[in-house]
Specification:
Blueprint (H helix, E strand, L loop, with lengths): L1 H15 L4 E9 L7 E4 L6 E25 L11 E10 L17 E8 L1 E2 L5 E23 L5 E9 L5 H22 L1
Parallel strand pairs: 1-3
Antiparallel strand pairs: 2-8, 3-7, 3-8, 4-5, 4-7, 6-7
């Protein structure tokens, strides 16, 4: 009897516990769309999940584009193939990686953009989200979270493209303009 009661209490505790972070993959440095493809079956659910995909950016700043989708043939978001409250966000790693949603190592990880909530596709048979933003060089992770049905899965892509250094376009334009003025003055003096 005590074992049964203990088993029930343990099961209830596990159901009410927050999702724990799981590092699924490391995309490496400056991932392209080929390097940043992701997919996962997050749970034997229904249960909450907080999946993480690590990546590093080298350079002054990058534009990061994220798309993610969850497809369900029937039953909608609340069915076995759906993910309720499906979101994506980008965090900058400061110290260690978050251990659970909203609980970071020392509270140092920085939310850079998101969380972006998935919306229903036009067909009504899937949900998707996308987001983009400018990030400086550093270590980051894509965090995907939600409450997955027992047969749910997701897939998507993260890719980065280097952006010009702020002010570089101004400097280049100034050099070109200066050269044009110098040529005009030289022609007028000749």
């Amino acid at each position: 009897m005590k074992r049964t009661l203990l088993g029930v209490l343990l099961g209830l505790t596990m159901l009410s516990a927050p999702a724990h972070a799981v590092v699924i993959d490391n995309f490496g440095v400056n991932p392209t769309s080929a390097d940043g493809a992701f997919s996962n079956d997050p749970t034997d659910g229904p249960a909450p999940f907080f999946d993480q995909y690590l990546f590093q950016l080298n350079g002054t700043s990058f534009v990061t584009v994220v798309t993610g989708s969850n497809t369900f043939a029937s039953g909608g978001i609340t069915g076995p193939f759906g993910i309720q409250s499906f979101t994506g966000a980008i965090y900058q790693i400061v110290g260690g990686v978050d251990t659970a949603p909203g609980v970071s190592n020392g509270g140092l990880d920085i939310l850079m953009f998101g969380p972006t909530l998935a919306t229903l596709c036009a067909s009504g048979l899937c949900q998707e989200f996308d987001a983009n933003g400018i990030l400086n060089a550093g270590n980051y992770y894509l965090a995907l979270a939600g409450v997955a049905g027992s047969l749910a899965g997701y897939g998507g892509n993260l890719s980065v493209a280097e952006t010009p250094i702020p002010g570089a376009a101004w400097l280049f334009g100034s050099v070109i303009a200066g050269a044009a003025i110098w040529r005009r003055r030289r022609k007028s003096l000749a």
